[in-house]
Write a structure and sequence with these properties.
By secondary structure, this protein is an alpha+beta fold. It is 32% helix and 26% strand.
């Protein structure tokens, strides 16, 4: 392969495949797919670069989507943490929001907090939102430091997390305690990090702020080690240290990302929605639902006003992380999801996955249990034979696996395969409804952008379940997450607490708030795009909406925007005052240019691959089209038209 231009590289490490997209500065795209290495994710990155034969001196940057934080939280393999909390509020993580894990199932329990009660140190101090109620004395600081370091030794902690009441508004006590801890740690030569809540999440709500701060402390050591190790291994071959995709859709340099571990919880899925938004922009589509079906999971998202919808909050593995994130809901319904019969004889799909090793039975790598991929192979929608990423598909192995559920059900393997796909579709359709209907968006008027290895296979069935009549299968569908990573801008952001009613904030003060945040982020640098949002709500409400704003806007104008957005999202307005909770500021570089065109793999488009770009024709379903890195199924009653940018536009007839 010849690389004569500077190249932006995106690498998405999934549970089954590691995808690489190389974007040249003339906009053209090359893609590569290799099997992931579950025991060593970094090796999957190196394998992808090796397979792509990318000269290191041509690489402008490498953007990486990582599941390290997600896996740490799911598997509880993070670093032990000691937490410091205001005396009398040390049980915040245990109390949560005092809601049930499941409303009608009393046997269900919330997951255990990341720190136990024995790992929490009470701090004798008290801040109110606007005044010091109980000062933090030097004597108290000395006692807390001694207690925290003792607990750190007992529990083999690597980090100390500090979350004191109302530190979002006045961080002085957190700063004093953190400084004393750092001095004591340095004097004793200990390898301990200190994380404070006013730096991680300077916003109201003690539980979410403490949970997010502890999650940061829990994940940071492993993230730092992973990124340092990956950077060192890339440097050996002359490649630059990676940028890392954040949950909010921008990228951070590896050094900065290592200090924002909690912001990486949805690193991988955010790349897919970013790539889908670029496709939507190229086609002039302002709103769309997205679904990325990989080997392990299906990730659904929403493009709103031409951009991935970014929201606050959400959780990973039962742990709240109240940082901005691209709206992505993941369900265990990927191609590797294992089909099984429950105790009542009902067919289920997932959440267990065959992953990359051994993989679906059809891969002939030792897998014996039936998966969604095996069902497609049995039905012929995934063709037997050689595929990308070093995979060879065996229909015989797939049929043998499907038979293990077909026989107990008393049906043919084909009928069982159809039922497996229908079951997986039902799971994914529910997720699509949640991200749309629950936000006041009617999916029936939107197109569904389907990508990932399995997205184009399931798209028609999912669209029919939601009453949608359009599907967009983008170019590079099987590796679109990697494309999204490569083109994503470098982005830094800051949250600034500003709890006040609209009447208490004048136009000049609003402008100062916004410009100060941008300046502190480095807004004096040229070529950066600054954007701002205010979190607003009616007084007395328990949730907020992000409202776009910019310096020079009148407060009354921002209030009106909030009222309109609230009516659009919730369907009503209230005759109440509006209050602002915090401001979010982002500074972004210019996105890497991309020209969506005929997909190229290793410089050659195989003769048996139809990507839609060269054909300029309309296909009538039912039919199956093999794409360079995925398979598209055009269902009965649907037509598919080749797009000028590559890919396909499907419509229900």
């Amino acid at each position: 392969m010849s690389y004569g231009t500077r190249v932006a590289v995106g690498i998405d490490v999934g549970g089954t495949f590691t995808d690489l997209a190389a974007l040249h500065d003339d906009g053209t795209v090359h893609t590569t797919k290799v099997l992931s290495v579950p025991a060593d994710r970094a090796q999957g990155v190196l394998n992808a670069l090796s397979a792509a034969q990318l000269p290191a001196d041509r690489v402008a940057h490498i953007a990486h989507g990582t599941t390290v934080v997600t896996n740490l939280l799911l598997e509880r393999r993070g670093a032990p943490v000691v937490a410091c909390a205001t005396q009398g509020f040390t049980d915040v993580l245990e109390l949560r929001r005092q809601e049930r894990a499941a409303l009608y199932d009393l046997s269900q329990q919330h997951v255990a907090p990341l720190v136990s009660r024995a790992q929490v140190v009470p701090v004798p101090e008290r801040m109110a939102p606007d005044v010091v109620v109980a000062p933090l004395t030097d004597v108290a600081i000395d006692a807390v430091v001694a207690d925290a370091l003792s607990k750190a030794e007992t529990h083999h902690a690597e980090t100390i997390a500090i979350t004191l009441l109302h530190a979002y508004g006045d961080p002085r006590h957190e700063q004093q305690l953190a400084e004393a801890l750092r001095i004591a740690i340095a004097s004793r030569g200990l390898a301990l990090d200190v994380v404070t809540s006013h730096e991680v999440l300077p916003e109201i709500r003690e539980y979410e702020r403490m949970a997010t701060t502890v999650a940061e402390a829990y994940a940071r050591p492993a993230v730092r080690r992973y990124l340092a190790g990956l950077s060192d291994r890339l440097a050996i071959d002359g490649y630059p240290a990676p940028r890392v995709m954040t949950s909010a859709g921008g990228t951070l340099e590896a050094h900065d990302a290592a200090h924002h571990a909690a912001a990486l919880a949805l690193s991988g899925p955010a790349g897919g929605v970013t790539g889908a938004a670029a496709i939507a922009s190229a086609l002039g589509v302002s709103r769309a639902l997205t679904i990325d079906i990989g080997g392990t999971s299906a990730d659904v998202g929403l493009i709103y006003d031409g951009e991935p919808l970014v929201e606050r909050g959400g959780g990973v593995a039962g742990i709240p992380i109240a940082l901005p994130r691209v709206l992505v809901e993941a369900v265990a319904a990927g191609g590797g999801s294992i089909a099984w019969l429950d105790d009542g004889g009902a067919l289920r799909a997932g959440p267990e996955s065959a992953g990359a090793s051994p993989g679906p039975a059809a891969y002939d790598r030792g897998g014996l249990r039936p998966t969604v991929t095996d069902a497609h192979v049995v039905l012929g929608t995934i063709a037997a034979g050689e595929w990308s990423g070093g995979v060879r598909i065996s229909r015989e192995k797939a049929a043998a696996a499907i038979a293990t559920v077909a026989t107990p059900l008393g049906v043919s393997v084909e009928r069982a395969a159809e039922a497996i796909i229908t079951t997986a579709d039902a799971i994914m359709a529910r997720a699509l409804r949640r991200v749309s209907v629950e936000r006041g968006v009617d999916p029936r008027g939107l197109p569904l952008i389907a990508f990932g290895g399995g997205g184009p296979l399931h798209a028609c069935g999912l669209a029919e379940r939601l009453g949608m009549r359009e599907v967009i299968v983008p170019p590079h569908a099987g590796v679109l997450s990697a494309v999204g990573l490569a083109l994503a801008p470098e982005r830094r952001e800051r949250l600034t607490s500003c709890v006040t009613t609209a009447d208490g904030l004048n136009d000049d003060a609003l402008a100062v708030l916004l410009t100060t945040a941008a300046r502190e982020l480095g807004g004096e640098r040229t070529g950066l795009d600054a954007r701002w949002w205010l979190r607003a709500r009616y007084v007395g409400q328990g949730y907020e909406l992000d409202v776009p704003v910019q310096p020079g806007d009148a407060v009354a104008t921002v209030v009106q925007r909030f009222v309109e957005r609230h009516e659009q999202r919730a369907g009503f307005t209230l005759n109440r005052a509006v209050e602002f909770i915090s401001a979010r500021t982002t500074l972004s570089s210019t996105p890497w240019p991309v020209r969506f065109a005929r997909p190229v793999r290793d410089g050659v488009l195989p003769d048996d691959v139809d990507d839609g770009r060269a054909m300029h024709r309309t296909l009538v379903g039912p039919t199956v089209v093999r794409l360079p890195d995925a398979t598209m199924r055009v269902a009965s009653g649907w037509t598919a038209r080749a797009l000028e940018i590559g890919g396909w536009h499907l419509e229900m007839t």
